[in-house]
Amino acid sequence: MSTGHHEASWRLPESDPLAATDIEHFKALARTAERGTFDSLFLADGPVLWGDVAQRPAGVIEPLTLLTVLAAATEHIGLIATASTTYNSPYNLARRFSSLDHVSAGRAGWNIVTTAGPAAARNFGLDDAPAHAQRYERAAEFTEVVKKLWDSWEDDVYVGDKKLGVWGDQRKIHPPRHQGTYFSVEGALNVPRSPQGYPLLVQAGSSEDGKDFAARYAEAVFTAQQTLAEARSFYADLKARTLAAGRDPEGVKILPGLVPVIGSTEAEARLRDAQLEELITYEHGRRTLSELLQIPLDQLDLDSRLPENLPPPELINGAQSRYELVVELARRDKLTVRELIGRLGGGRGHRTFAGTPEQVADEIELWFTGGAADGFNIMPPVLPSGLEVFVDEVVPILRRRGLFRTAYVPGETLRARYGLPRPDATRSASKRTDIDTRTGSKS
Amino acid sequence: MSTGHHEASWRLPESDPLAATDIEHFKALARTAERGTFDSLFLADGPVLWGDVAQRPAGVIEPLTLLTVLAAATEHIGLIATASTTYNSPYNLARRFSSLDHVSAGRAGWNIVTTAGPAAARNFGLDDAPAHAQRYERAAEFTEVVKKLWDSWEDDVYVGDKKLGVWGDQRKIHPPRHQGTYFSVEGALNVPRSPQGYPLLVQAGSSEDGKDFAARYAEAVFTAQQTLAEARSFYADLKARTLAAGRDPEGVKILPGLVPVIGSTEAEARLRDAQLEELITYEHGRRTLSELLQIPLDQLDLDSRLPENLPPPELINGAQSRYELVVELARRDKLTVRELIGRLGGGRGHRTFAGTPEQVADEIELWFTGGAADGFNIMPPVLPSGLEVFVDEVVPILRRRGLFRTAYVPGETLRARYGLPRPDATRSASKRTDIDTRTGSKS
Question: Where is there biased composition of kind Basic and acidic residues (chains A, B) (predicted)?
């Protein structure tokens, strides 16, 4: 949320409840993050208006549009937008990400999501979202197709012979000619190959299907992990799956979410956390929980625990890993629904940590050096103040400890910042010709 | 095309053949147009890579992305992007145009097109484009749905009571609950109502279906007209159809294309035109003509006239009005295929006029005061030089004659600049409630 990741942040005196449509607010955030030499900015998204506008700020600028504005307002920071494979077509989305990569000089990233829930489905002519496994099957084919589109121009198509009137070399254009289960896409992209070749490919679902998808395609993974032990186990599991999928485990960066509540003393930080919790609208939290856990509203009593006998996550056609995390958290800490809502208010399942800048840096170091994280998705509870204090107070500590960069490499792409190679369109195109030959179509 | 509307413009020594992906090039164009107090910038589009990249510059930045960049680089000028109703979904497109309207403070326009031809269709899982009439039927429903989405937020949803924790008023949110032939769209947009309410609605097809569509929905119409008589007749026809559709004819502005080839003497302008014509690659022109007229390549001999017995336009499942214009031009002026390609090279069917700044201003005045145009779509043959000379030499003459503004009204929206009212979401929502009641669905 634009006023911060704590759902009640908009109610603080310092917050602007209309920040979501104020591009100056986002420009200032992006510049602060760039001052802190962050890798990238990340915008979540779903093509739907959630819930009741009474209960929290609603309505946003569409993420690729907003990141295009921020590309012009910044120089170095990566720009990662969420977009759904269930409610887009590959040709349109490949164009848009390639275009963002062009206008940002190689700073674009795509957070690939499948979009759970019936509300979004009903905005696109469906009664409900396709089943979980089917959404991921479509996501895999979608990703294959957009990669073919991004590879449909070699780097050196341009010839530019004005005298002879030859602009480009058609032999270096490789139409996908894709015929699949979900998509048929014949022609080459109408955008030349972008600075990064592909945007950085990001994934954020931690279900079984999600982890398998990440192992095959993702170069960065956002994940919600509540404890160091769980985060280590997720980290090891995903790296192993990546290796099993035939990829270098170093090629996927694992980035747990962290909601840092920062105070000059630990007591001050805890007080700040408690003050935010007091501002939570529990009726809103109950409704959100009812949707996430697919439990009827009347079975969620604020002062009781969650109902017994909840179905296993694999029977949930929604956000399976978030469901599992929330149910486990409630059971482990024996929380009432009210307490659970309080815990989730900070980061909707992401870990909240309240402490001094030194303590926050310690936690980050512990997870980073302890096999639990390659980096973090920092989700300040209140914006812009929570980002400013992180950049001014925590980042310098991390830098002093040699854990974080002190400056950007000028002109570096997002992909290079993550230590990833630039995809080779030539190799991909020749590989594709082989496949086409085997299936009998001409290439 | 980014180097100019003449197809051979990229071959001039002054042109940058890579201008299409150079955002600085477009920023400079936008600023020049703003210096000339133009109404707006307009970007054409089709989701397809046309033809052979050997024969002319290919590959562009996706228009809404580029206009978002230009929104940040300019202050006043309108930003009109073409987008297809055949290859988009209403929810996604409504979001994107609403977002552009937000980030440009009310300067967005949508050129509504249906996208002819099989090449684009094959990028979206179809073998060929839907039939002409069906495309327009879908376009009409598409437009109705996006208008409902733009009206799904009243202007004053925001309440902002931090104390009580009430952000907005859900009663002022009106989900479309649209169930139609082509689309089902249930929920409200997730973007608050934008500065203009709707972007300016533009249309550019001049077929029978196109004119009927324009009469119902368009607020500005781009059209290709070769002679004053034809332009007058088109103008009168479209204004009459608009009246017949129950709208104020003043509510649709008719803007013929004009390719001004400007010289300090008439002879110099004609020489410049001839020099550009010499640079045309006739094989490319022949292929383009074959596609447009749907005549096999081997029946187009460069030194003969067009074949006899061409089908009537209503049997063409493509750009019907452009087909009709080109065939009429060839017949009227008894042109060989080579001569026809030369004539079309300047503006692909739009009128080319070569002369001094005074003569160009005279032509504009003649059409403007003679019932043929409410304004013009100026398509310089070479960019940026052709725009610069128009702004520096022609605009001052038009201003002196009292035909054109000398400055922008600060903060004016594009819609206001066209003398159009801001749509009223409240009225539209109550109208929709009536319809919903009659059809028995709840609202």
Answer: 431-443
Of A203-207, B212-216, B432-436, the poorest mean pLDDT is in B432-436
Q: How far apart are CA B233 and CA B39, in angstroms?
A: 25
**In angstroms, rounded to a whole number, what is the distance separating the alpha carbons of residues B280 and B192?**
48
What amino acid is encoded at B406 in this protein? T
CA-nearest residue to A120 within chain B is B187
CA distance A134 to A124: 17
Q: How far apart are CA B435 and CA B443, in angstroms?
A: 9
Q: What is the Cα gyration radius of chain A? A: 22
Q: Which residues of B touch A168 (CB under 8 A)?
A: 53-54, 57-58
Each as own residue / partner, the long-range contacts of residues A205-208 (CB below 8 Å, 24 or more positions apart, any chain) are: A205/A113, A205/A114, A205/A319, A205/A320, A205/A321, A206/A234, A206/A321, A206/A322, A206/A325, A207/A132, A207/A313, A207/A319, A207/A320, A207/A321, A207/A324, A208/A314, A208/A320
Using alpha carbons, select from A6, A67, A1, A3 the residue that is nearest to residue A261.
A6
ipTM of the complex: 0.93
Q: For residue range A174-220, list pLDDT tens digits in order.
A: 999 999 999 999 999 999 999 999 999 999 978 899 999 999 999 99
Interface probe for B, chosen from A60, A186, A278, A287 (most Cβ of B below 10 Å), is A186
Contact B17 A160 (CB under 8 A): yes
Q: Tell whether omega for the bond before A384 is within 30 degrees of 0, i.e. cis.
A: yes
Q: Are A48 and B95 in contact (CB under 8 A)?
A: no
* Residue A393: Cβ-neighbour burial (10 angstroms; 0-12, 13-18, 19+): middle
C-alpha A372/C-alpha A324 separation (Å) is: 19
| Helix axes of A90-103 and B63-73: crossing angle, nearest 10 degrees | 30
B82 is in an annotated binding site: yes
d(CA B155, CA B195): 9
pLDDT of residue B88: 98
Q: Is A136 one of the annotated binding-site residues?
A: yes
Cα–Cα distance, A79 to A100 (Å, whole number): 9
Is pLDDT above 80 for B346? no
What is the tens place of the pLDDT at every residue in A352-385?
A: 999 999 999 999 999 999 999 999 999 999 999 9
Question: Which of B15, B69, B184 is the closest to A125 by Cβ?
Answer: B184
Spell out the residues 6+ positions from residue B80 whose beta carbon is closer than 8 angstroms to its own. B40, B41, B42, B43, B67, B108, B109, B110, B111, B200, B202
Type of residue at B119: A
Residues in chain B with CB shorter than 8 Å from the CB of A98 are 62
Could B95 and A47 be called an inter-chain contact, meaning their C-beta atoms sit closer than 8 Å?
A: yes
Q: Which residue has the tokens 């939290």?
A: A285
Angle between helices B90-103 and A63-73 (to 10 degrees): 30
Of residues A183, A190, A191, nearest to B125 (C-beta): A183
Please report, to the nearest 10 degrees, the dihedral formed by the alpha carbons of residues A339, A345, A351, A357 taken in order: -110
Q: Where are the alpha helices (DSSP H) in B315-441?
A: 320-332, 337-345, 357-369, 385-389, 395-400, 414-417, 425-438
For residue A76, give both structure tokens: 């170095």
Instruction: From chain A, pick out residues whose CB is under 8 angstroms from the CB of B57.
Output: 167-168
Angstrom distance (rounded) from CA B278 to CA B60: 26
B7, B45, B53: best to mutate for the A interface, most A CBs within 10 A: B53
Token pair, residue A337, equals: 């629904």
Q: What distance in Å separates the CA atoms of residue B108 and residue B191, rounded to the nearest whole number?
A: 15
What is the model's pLDDT at position B439? Answer: 36
Rounded Cα distance between B199 and B143, Å, is: 12
Residues of chain B with Cβ-Cβ distance to A18 below 8 Å are 158, 160
Q: CB of B159 within 8 A of CB of A17?
A: no
DSSP conformation class of A194 = B
C-alpha distances out from residue A429 to A154, A172, A212, A435, B228, Å = 9, 9, 25, 10, 51
